[in-house]
Prior knowledge:
The protein is of the alpha/beta class and 578 residues long. It contains 20 helices and 17 strands.
Amino acid sequence: MSVKPTHILIADDDPALLRLLRKWMESSGFVVQCAADGRQAVAAIEANCPQILIADRDMPHMDGIELCRWLRKQKQHGYVYTIVVTSHTSSDTMVEAFEAGADDFLKKPVDKAELVARVQSGLRVLELEKKLNVLAKTDSLTGLATRRTFFELAEREWSRACRHHIPLSAVMIDIDFFKRINDTYGHRVGDQALRAVAKVLQDSCRGSDVIGRYGGEEFCILLPETDESHAITWAERVRERLSRNTDVVARLGTSLTASFGVAQRLADTADPDALVDLADQALLVAKRSGRDRIVGFQSLAASTGVQSNPRAPGAIFDGLTARQVMTTIIAGLNEDGNVGRAARYFLRFRFNSAPVVDRDGKLVGILSERDVMAIMMWPKWWTTKIKDVMKRNVVCYEETTPVVSIYEFLCRVSLRGVIVVKQGRPVGMISRGSLLRWFTNLLAATPGARLEVPTSEQIPEEDGLPSPEPRESAAMIARALAREVAELESRIERESNDLVPAVVSGVSRIEELLNDLLAFSRDASVPRPSGTTAASQLTERTVGTLANLLGISHGDANDASHTLPAMWLPPGSSEQDR
């Protein structure tokens, strides 16, 4: 039984009976509140929800049956055990009360011993419900919140942070080399390590912090009213406490270390899941960079920002709009199309994402290669509708937006690019790559005109060699193609079972190199000589090999250049050139 006094609400329109029942319950050690009708009972429940409700069947304004129905529709923190009291003894009345949500039924005149016994029975039910609730919401090994419960609690803190504009940070923790502990000392010692880390986290957190076991050897902590820098300071204290204490796990004989990823809620962070994902990205960097360390997400996207110096490189974006820098979209994806078509679209144009439009051409979402890969294990995944897979939270800017705003945004977040729209319709894309390409092209086209362009002495060439010309780059790619074709031929000869994995992997790499070779050929802008060079002969042979492997005609394969996106064509190219 709970050590806290049980709160009981008695609702009855008979003042004499109400006083009598109250006296009986208070003499049995219960805290009692009274209501003269159903409306007063509703107000009392909303103000201070009881554990047990004793309601008369017949009351003015709202009777006991209606009160039960109303109560079961509410979202209360705990279950309210309800006993209906009535002078009606027919079975129909009892069935009606139970169907309305009553847990027990008591006939008038009320006997004190019977009433107390039924209330005690209700308390046993509530205690069992409480234990089951704890088991469902608490990790049995560590005593921390489960992943599901963690996110339920995180929603509450997220709403508060958004409403009051206060910082909120998430910390992801992973025990270093946990599998080695299990393999060397056994799973029992591994469980002790998990409990030890959970205990350190509980001792290090405030009452308002949310701690959960995220899965396996991972933990997640939500720190309300804490920005990323202070969250990193907190994480450093926990890390040192773990690494310096060799007695955390008795049989281990050494200290535990852990890796930490920290992230703060930003203006563009969509929800608690997105915040935890940012912390998880930082955690991955911490693990891959040596473990036993802390990485903040903002340090991954750190940027010096746009310079205020008018002669600095950042000034090149002055006066420019998104329309002047964006990559024009050749064609969008329709939300009613299937994922198979989208996959062919990505392969054909070498895009990693594309906007999704409705029948009116309005932007409704975005689909990426990652979204397609996430469902590739589904049966008949290629027939899945794009609208069922796409992300609906799209970062978009009007085409008249200053480019400097988009530049600052992409420097700060983990997104690779944004969509440019005109009256709700996608017209282009701006990515980090397109900004970098535009920047370097401008440097090459207008050296010293608007910028402080570094001289060759200030920027040494890599390995002391000049940058390769397009023809040299094409030759390098051709040699790489030769190696790939030879390796593919060797794998085909060695493979005694299924040829598909070997062929597909080889063809994929060759296809990438072919596309690069075609792109460099366009950059060179040199007419093809009448005689065939070794590189051109290699390209012809490779295209023919690909045609045979992929089951397409040689002529179709030679037309691969027509699948190149328009952004690769030189300025002034005609539709016929495309």
